[in-house]
Task: inverse folding
């Protein structure tokens, strides 16, 4: 995937997750697990998680 497309996707997913989790913060572990975030970083802030996965 072209780098700029990957960045746009990353920003879009991060934005949607932030909006959703602002309403339903108790769903964070479940959502991140379902999208494949490694268990070792689930407790990180979303910004940190998406910076790690770039």
Result:
């Amino acid at each position: 995937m072209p780098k700029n497309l990957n960045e746009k996707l990353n920003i879009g997913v991060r934005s949607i997750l932030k909006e959703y989790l602002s309403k339903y913060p108790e769903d964070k572990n479940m959502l991140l697990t379902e999208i494949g975030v490694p268990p070792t970083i689930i407790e990180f802030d979303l910004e940190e998680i998406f910076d790690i996965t770039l």
